[in-house]
Every structure is written in C-alpha cells, then in structure tokens.
C-alpha cells in the first residue's frame, strides 16, 4: 500500500482552538493528544521560517554556545530513516562539531538530495544556546519542563514512546506525527530494550510502508492510529506513553518540545522498575513468577485498604504514600542491592 494511501485513511488528531494563555488549563486533565494551530506564531524562529531556511539557520548560529553539538549522520544518502540495519546495528553514526558546521551541511543538503540525512536530536536549549530558550517559551503554568530543540534535514523516526508529557512545536519546515495509543505496543513489534537508535525502544514497522506479511498485528495498530501534519507555529500535545512516529518532511526542519512529568521529581522512573523486574523476576520458575505477579498486584497495581489496615500509620513505612524521605530510603536500598 502506498504511503499516501495509508495516511489518507487515518483520522486526524483532534484540533482545538485555544490561545497560548489558555494552554496550561487545557492540558490539565487532557486524556488524548490534540493539535493547536498557530500556537507559537509569534516565536522568532517561526517568524524567521517565513523568510526561509537561511534565516532560521542564521538565528540559531547567532545564539549557539561555542561547544560541540552531537549529530546523527545517515550512513548513506537518500535514507531519511534513522534506524537499524538488517544486522540490527545502526544505519547512522554519531559525531560532534560546532553548530555552524552542521548548519552549513544542512544548507547544502537543502538543495542537494544526495547529501546524507543529518539530525541534531533533543538538544537541551539551556545548555547549548544563549537566550534561545527564553525567547521560545509556552505558558505551561506551574509545570517545569525540559525544553529541547531538534534540527535536521528530512528525517523519519520510528514509532516510540516517552515517559514525560510532551508539547512539541514545529518551528520551521513541516512535521508529520503518526500516533498510536499506549495499549497498541504489542501490535507495533517493538525492538530491543537495550539496543535502540536513540535510547527509546522503537517499532520495527515502517509506518510509511508497513510489511503486513511480516507484521500482521500492525493492521490493528493502524486501525487505532491518528495523524497530524504541522507547519511553523503549530503545536501538538503527545500524552505520556503514546507511541509517535515522527517525520521531518521539508528539506530543513526545526522542532522545539517541552517535556514534563505530572508527578514529584523524587519518584523513580517506571522503566527502571521494568528493567529490574526483567533482571529479578522474568526468568524465575513459573510458580515463583506467578507468586511475584500476585505480590506486584497486591502492593503496586491494585492496592486496597487491606494492604496496610492492620498496621498503625507510623509503622507502614514504604507501604504508605511515598514521601521524599521514604522514596530516598527505597533508592538507597536498591543501590545497595544492585552493588552486590
């Protein structure tokens, strides 16, 4: 099935009309992704995008710190998909250089499709630029997000998910997001947890041309998918753990995103618990694994009053709602155990 035919069949991500000042309230309690057109229309990068890629690159160059910027460079020209090889190695290499060098290469690639894909991904704006983050903000209320910028030529990033909540803004070029609900992970044929293109496990299916004979369950994922195309100034809210396949469609693309978690910073990362469970539980004998599953349900996934009602409040320890102190005690115990 041709790429255009696949995307034409998918429903569009819901669009909402909300001014920037109302974004924080709109995000509170949001349960599904949504798009806001023109949310960041007044950003300097978006304004520069109206003048062309050269103006955007000049703005970025002026505010870049004098340090190396990490970049992914495709192994061969014409392959915008930063992914695995047939041998499950990466089809790109990493390198470090001043931003001016990467921007010059992108300027060349803008008119020469024979140049390899070049991508600067998840660059911390505060660490790598002076003043750029301050000039490109969204009113997110009391949320304290990490602001990152993504700069590249045409790119295709396999479907993956992220733990934080995410508002992403297309600042230059065009972006296409194809979204899948969290419960579709089994239908996305996710690759290794410990050998990933960019730190996140990814779907092995090419959304643009899915090979359904090899990945038959992906048809169910497609039935649940949504798509959105963003131009400069448009924003999309991607909920925590929603899978998203992201393409940079223009010869030169810039995206800015804001990540945050709606929970205390001192809580642990659920992915650490997943890896620890693989280490400690998954390969146990069946009867032991089933018993641990019951204990996880009792203490973690379906706790009720029966878990602690027989204990006086002052004796409940980590079974009570966590505090920074009790969370710290758990981390210390885990560190001691893992160091043995």
TrEMBL record:
InterPro entries: Cupin_8 (IPR041667), JmjC_dom (IPR003347). Pfam families: Cupin_8. SUPFAM superfamilies: Clavaminate synthase-like. It comes from the Bacteria. Residues 112-275 form the JmjC domain. PANTHER family: HYPOXIA-INDUCIBLE FACTOR 1 ALPHA INHIBITOR-RELATED, HYPOXIA-INDUCIBLE FACTOR 1-ALPHA INHIBITOR. This is Cupin. It comes from Sandarakinorhabdus cyanobacteriorum.
């Amino acid at each position: 099935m041709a790429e255009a035919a696949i995307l034409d069949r998918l429903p569009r991500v819901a669009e909402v009309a909300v001014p920037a000042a109302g974004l924080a309230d709109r995000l509170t309690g949001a349960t599904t992704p949504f798009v806001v057109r023109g949310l960041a229309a007044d950003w300097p990068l978006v304004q520069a995008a109206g003048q062309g890629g050269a103006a955007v690159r000049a703005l970025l160059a002026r505010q870049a710190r004098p340090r190396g910027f990490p970049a992914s460079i495709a192994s061969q020209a014409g392959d915008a998909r930063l992914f695995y090889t047939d041998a499950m190695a990466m089809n790109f290499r990493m390198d470090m250089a001043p931003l001016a060098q990467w921007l010059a290469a992108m300027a060349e690639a803008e008119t020469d499709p024979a140049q390899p894909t070049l991508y600067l991904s998840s660059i911390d704006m505060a660490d790598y630029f002076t003043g750029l983050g301050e000039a490109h903000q969204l009113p997110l209320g009391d949320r304290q997000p990490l602001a990152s910028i993504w700069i590249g030529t045409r790119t295709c990033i396999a479907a993956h998910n992220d733990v934080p909540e995410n508002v992403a803004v297309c600042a230059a070029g065009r972006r296409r997001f194809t979204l899948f609900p969290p419960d579709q992970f089994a239908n996305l044929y996710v690759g290794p947890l410990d050998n990933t293109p960019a730190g996140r496990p990814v779907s092995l299916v090419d959304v643009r041309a899915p090979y359904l004979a090899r990945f038959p369950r992906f048809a169910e994922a497609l039935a649940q998918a949504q798509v959105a195309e963003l131009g400069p100034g448009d924003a999309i809210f991607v909920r925590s753990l929603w899978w998203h396949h992201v393409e940079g469609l223009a010869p030169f693309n810039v995206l800015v995103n804001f990540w945050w978690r709606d929970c205390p910073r001192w809580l642990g990362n659920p992915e650490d618990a997943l890896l620890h469970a693989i280490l400690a539980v998954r390969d146990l004998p069946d009867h032991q694994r089933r018993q641990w599953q019951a204990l996880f349900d009792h203490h973690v996934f379906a706790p009720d009053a029966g878990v602690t009602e027989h204990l006086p409040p002052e004796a409940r320890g980590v079974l009570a709602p966590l505090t920074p102190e009790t969370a710290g005690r758990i981390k210390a115990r885990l560190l001691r155990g893992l160091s043995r």
